[in-house]
């Protein structure tokens, strides 16, 4: 239990501090022992009041410090283990074990013997540090040991000050420096204001609503619905002793359900605080999307009734034992028990929420918003039933309809699975799951759902159907109508020479231009550039303003803009005739040429190596425009050096987006 409290300390510290807690600074130096032997020295300077954990920590304790040395070319060999100073050893009350840590300064040494001549050795250190209130997440830091300086003595080379000429790297990559960009000085009366804030808030509320809907669906599953009588029984016993106490416990019960699901999102804030780009890296990772696809298929067949998903029975046993504690602790364990025993039904819904949030723009806060909606939706009814047991009389009795709900969710999970396979296909440029096969698969899945509702298909736990109910007939007709709607996606839009985009599938299906029959490299058959330098060169020659479209292959809101805002006549005319469109994909995994695979400085400190075009364009966005969400639209003059107005993010309102483009033209023509 104490280890759990310590983990919660880490999680809440990541949510409570907008600036990253970073109490450890690393530097390196090298000592020459002989012509072939060197001592690599890593020095950690720890802020006052904080401590850094040692390398050897007993299992079940905090994350130990761990050194890794890159030696793929076998240029050297390690002599022994990395040594450390004596440090401070204490009996830790939280972990109930002896733990060694360092305060102020810690020195780690590793002897190496050279096999080949090298100028430097690189490595990394994974570490964790804490003070009395908070802890860092497990943090990875790059180490560079420069050997050729060792002849001068034990000179320091501080990693934080590795010489990177930002101006030169930006000139190499983008043909300009961030200092060359002139901020907008003019504004237009019709220009949209504070779109970033309103768009972000709107997006968070939208995913909160989706999470709330997911919680309502979870209530109607056979894993959750039967828990309601147990809840009523628990709080009825409590209220027999003291009515006010029963009500207060019921409210706490609802809050604890909410808190349990909120905590599930906390680790992603840790990741977000370490590296703002990391959630984008996760959401567009090819293999992770394939894993999501397989998990969703696995979830779907669980909903169909072919097997059950359950967490270890020991978890349930322990939380159930906790319920007998009474008071606040008993209520908490009651809520935790609900979350665990209902996992076989809520797990797939939460998985959908998790995966969907990571592919959205707000990352960790999107996930927290969705989890909050789910927790409120699930916690509020249980609290009400616990406060007012007589409400039980208005509930429908358990029956076959619970399994029907579960099977319907199975079909939805199966359909959503192909969204993640599509992401992997787009990012990896496989050119397999284009719009045609995607629509066909969805038509098959929802046709199967319609047949199920009409009683033509059965699954293992289905009860015999003597007569179709009104709800099944109405649901079957609704799903059959959706199948027809999906088929309408094969209509050809003559203006764009692509298939017709479907509003309900916006962001779920591949772009309509990603097609076997009607391929289109740019949205809506527009002329666009996918290289910054080429686009700017053309804009200068044509003397036209530039719109830089920071987008993503797996970006949901980007597809919504391209398929439902850009086709509007006024906007299409601006993009087609008045602007030079440069679309930069921040999740493109295509490798950069070797001369561009360089280290750059992050805007929030530290360094990173650019490996692919996604890294390059993401760095350009954060370095030049201090933003890392997509879509993001920047209007520049023909030279690409002056911003025409304030950039905007996702702007679903057509009038506001048209005003944004019109404003840029006005400023350009002044």
TrEMBL record:
The chain crosses the membrane at residues 204-229, 250-271, 286-307, 328-350, 370-388, 400-418, 438-457, 469-487. InterPro entries: Cyt_c_assmbl_TM_dom, Thioredoxin-like_sf. Its main location: membrane. It holds the Pfam family DsbD_TM. It is a multi-pass membrane protein. GO terms for molecular function: protein-disulfide reductase activity. This is Thioredoxin family protein. It comes from Hyunsoonleella flava.
């Amino acid at each position: 239990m104490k280890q759990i409290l310590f983990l919660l300390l880490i999680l809440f510290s990541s949510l409570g501090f907008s600036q990253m807690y970073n109490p450890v600074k690393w530097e390196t130096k090298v000592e020459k022992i002989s012509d072939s032997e060197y001592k690599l020295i890593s020095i950690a300077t720890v802020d006052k009041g904080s401590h850094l954990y040692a390398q050897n920590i007993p299992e079940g304790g905090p994350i130990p410090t761990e050194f890794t040395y890159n030696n793929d070319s076998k240029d050297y060999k390690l002599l022994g283990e990395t040594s450390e100073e004596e440090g401070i050893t204490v009996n830790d009350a939280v972990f109930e074990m002896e733990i060694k840590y360092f305060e102020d300064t810690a020195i780690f040494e590793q002897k190496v013997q050279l096999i080949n001549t090298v100028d430097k050795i690189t490595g990394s250190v994974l570490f964790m540090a804490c003070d009395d209130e908070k802890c860092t997440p497990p943090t990875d830091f790059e180490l560079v040991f420069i050997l050729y300086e060792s002849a001068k003595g034990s000179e320091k080379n501080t990693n934080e000050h590795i010489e990177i000429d930002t101006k030169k790297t930006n000139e190499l990559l983008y043909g300009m420096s961030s200092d060359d960009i002139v901020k907008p000085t003019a504004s237009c009366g019709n220009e949209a204001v504070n779109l970033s804030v309103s768009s972000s808030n709107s997006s968070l509320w939208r995913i909160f609503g989706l999470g709330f809907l997911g919680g309502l669906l979870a209530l109607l599953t056979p894993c959750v619905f039967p828990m309601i009588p147990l809840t009523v029984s628990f709080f009825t016993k409590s209220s027999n002793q003291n009515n006010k106490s029963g009500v207060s416990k019921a409210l706490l019960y609802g809050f604890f359900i909410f808190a349990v699901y909120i905590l599930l999102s906390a680790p992603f804030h840790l990741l977000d605080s370490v590296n703002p780009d990391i959630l984008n890296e996760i959401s567009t990772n090819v293999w992770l999307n394939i894993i999501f696809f397989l998990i969703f298929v696995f979830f779907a067949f669980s909903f169909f009734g072919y097997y059950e998903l359950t967490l270890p029975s020991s978890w349930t046993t322990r939380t159930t034992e906790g319920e007998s504690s009474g008071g606040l602790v008993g209520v908490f364990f009651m809520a935790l028990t609900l979350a665990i025993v209902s996992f076989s039904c809520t797990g797939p819904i939460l998985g959908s929420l998790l995966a969907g949030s990571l592919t959205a723009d707000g990352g960790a806060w999107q996930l927290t918003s969705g989890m909050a909606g789910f927790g409120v939706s699930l916690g509020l009814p249980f609290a009400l039933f616990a406060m007012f047991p007589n409400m039980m009389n208005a509930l429908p009795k358990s029956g076959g309809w619970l399994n029907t709900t579960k099977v319907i969710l199975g079909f939805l999970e199966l359909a959503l699975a192909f969204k993640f396979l599509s992401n992997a296909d787009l990012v990896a440029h496989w050119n397999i799951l284009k719009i045609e096969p995607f629509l066909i698969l969805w038509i098959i899945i929802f046709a199967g759902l319609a047949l199920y509702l009409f009683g033509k298909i059965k699954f293992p736990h289905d009860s015999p159907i003597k007569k179709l109910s009104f709800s099944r007939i109405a649901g079957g007709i609704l799903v059959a109508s959706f199948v027809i709607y999906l088929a309408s996606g094969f209509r050809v839009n003559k203006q764009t020479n692509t298939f017709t985009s479907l509003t309900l599938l916006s962001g779920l299906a591949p772009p309509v231009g990603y097609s076997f029959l009607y391929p289109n490299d740019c949205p809506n058959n527009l002329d666009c550039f996918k290289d910054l330098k080429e686009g700017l060169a053309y804009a200068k020659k044509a003397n036209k303003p530039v719109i830089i479209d920071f987008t993503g292959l797996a970006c949901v809101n980007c597809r919504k803009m391209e398929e439902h805002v850009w086709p509007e006549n006024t906007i299409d005319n601006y993009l087609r005739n008045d602007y030079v469109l440069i679309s930069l994909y921040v999740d493109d995994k295509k490798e950069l040429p070797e001369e561009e695979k360089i280290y750059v400085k992050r805007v929030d400190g530290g360094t990173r190596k650019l490996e692919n075009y996604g890294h390059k364009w993401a760095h350009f966005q954060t370095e030049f425009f201090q933003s890392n969400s997509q879509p993001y639209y920047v209007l520049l003059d023909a030279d690409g050096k002056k911003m025409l107005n304030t950039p905007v993010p996702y702007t679903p309102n057509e009038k506001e987006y048209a005003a944004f483009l019109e404003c840029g033209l006005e400023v350009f023509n002044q």
